[in-house]
Amino acid sequence: MRSLISIEELSREEIDSLISTANDIIANPKKYSELCRGKKLATLFYEPSTRTRLSFEAAMYELGGNVLGFSEAQSSSAAKGESVADTARTVSCYADIIAMRHPKEGAPFVAAQNASVPIINAGDGGHNHPTQTLADLCTISRECGRMSNLTIGCCGDLKFGRTVHSLIAAMSRYENVRFVLISPEELRVPSYVRHDILERGGIPYSETQDISEVMGELDILYMTRVQRERFFSEEEYLRLKDSYILTADKLSGAKDSLCIMHPLPRVNEISVEVDRDPRACYFKQVLYGKYMRMALILMLLGVSV
Ligand code: CP
Question: Which of 61-65, 237-241, 251-255, 296-300 has the lowest mean pLDDT?
Fold first, then answer.
């Protein structure tokens, strides 16, 4: 039995295979519509979510399965003090696979050690969000037409933005990928990402606070939200929250082929006028996330097509 806690647990071949399955689901949805008949997915969300929880649920329904779960800790026995380990053992009695989001880093790992069904990390604190990365990788593959020879700009809250950490880990495995890290000094990527992934892997990267000076170099611009819920100080959040707001003007020097991505939700870091730009890919990212979650559920349940 296999769980997915971090994107690094998937080989490049497995990621390519998941993208291939997602592409086949998009092309032939009927072929997949009964594959999980009689199976149940539990969504255990201790933190707010729109996309991840609902796309997991839509994914399981589109595979013919059923869904149960909770969308806030307060409506579960966590409110009475039940541990993640006991909850995972309990829900294993009711479901065939579990997707868990939790504010504490490592909680889905603890769940995986105690569950008797596969656990999928649907986001743990500021640490990992592997299924968002699967959505991102599918978007890059489909919208850029390649996974290599790319300059990827990551902009905004690179300290707490777990999607950026997972994206850097995943894209570092492809040839000739370069990162441009755009953030205020206070929100630079954590040293473990810089040292353990980029420097140890010999991956080229640069850091800047000025998005305009690098815009013309980028094949992908991955915008992120400043994560209010991870700040210790409201004053610090208010000072940094509008560090980068992407407008149509700021895109004037960008490539025609630029792919603008954002894991969403956005607050105001991408102006709504940019939504009309054909280079805006963030709502396609949302859709591809559902197909990648369908592919992942099939893989972890060992369902062959
Ligand atoms: N991208 C993402 O994780 O969105 P939600 O928080 O809405 O699930």
Answer: 237-241
Give the containing element (helix H, strand E) for 40: strand 40-45
Ligand 1 centroid to residue 50 C-alpha, Å = 6
Name 100's Cβ contacts closer than 8 Å, sequence gap at least 6.
44, 45, 46, 84, 88, 107, 108, 111, 119, 120, 121, 122
129 assigned to active site: yes
Q: Pick the closest to residue 263 from 131, 125, 127 (CA basis).
A: 131
Residue with tokens 């979510």: 49
pLDDT number for residue 31: 97
Q: Which ligand 1 atom is the nearest neighbour of the CA of 129?
A: 3
In tens, the pLDDT along 15-70 reads 999 999 999 999 999 999 999 999 999 999 999 999 999 999 999 999 999 999 99
Q: Six-digit token pair at 223?
A: 């915008």
The whole-angstrom separation of Cα 189 and Cα 156 is 10
Please identify which of the residues 51, 89, 178, 228 carries the catalytic annotation.
51
Active site residue 151: no
In this structure, are residues 122 and 101 in contact, taking their beta carbons and an 8 Å threshold? yes
pLDDT over threshold 70, residue 303: yes
Q: CA 128 → CA 43, 166, 212, 297, distances in Å?
A: 17, 6, 29, 18
- Global pTM value: 0.94
